[in-house]
Amino acid sequence: MYLQRAWxxxxxxxxxxxxxxxxxxxxxxxxxxxxxxxxxxxxxxxxMYNECEKAGSSLGYKHTEDALVKMRNKKMxxxxxxxxxxxxxxxxxxWGRRREDGTNRMSEPTKxxxxxxxxxxxxxxxxxAKQSATHRERCKDPEVRARLLSISSTSGYSGHRHSxxxxxxxxxxxxxxxxxxxxxxxxxxSQKEGRERKKSEP
Length: 202
Known about the structure:
With 202 residues, this protein is mainly α. Among the domains are: 2-62, no CATH class; 124-152, no CATH class. It contains 9 helices and no strands. The chain has helices at residues 2-10, 28-42, 65-73, 81-101, 108-118, 125-139, 142-154, 164-178, 181-200. 0% of the residues are buried.
């Protein structure tokens, strides 16, 4: 975008295009990143035409406010019932195959990364209130309630009993959470609000 604007303003005579080096395709991003870093340290990022600081990625690119407004207001066309059925069938078949061959489970390194990334994260009260209100509103629909009950009864967890080792692990995790004063206060407040809400419901 910036390069095109400069080209339109100054013309082709103001630019020189030179091949810096030849390399195999798999090393393109590596050499581009070296060039980006080198020029950024010498002439400064503000004097470069690159929109992204990361080669082969959109990292660092910032949309204009007009573009953000257009993306927010853009409405995707509704999916037809037939397309929805096909997508659902394909997804079920895919996860069915992955359950059979055991590839639907995350590896231990992936679990560790996710655990580390989310450790200590707390959902803001405003977000939790919105999620709770949305869920309660959805559950007022008899069809939604029936579908959720159907999923629960056919998910394989109906009547499921945890092993003693799993129970011990869950108990230990709960005790560690409960030792946190902030978590304890938040949980007790949430339980109290739930009881008050049930009393006020007809």
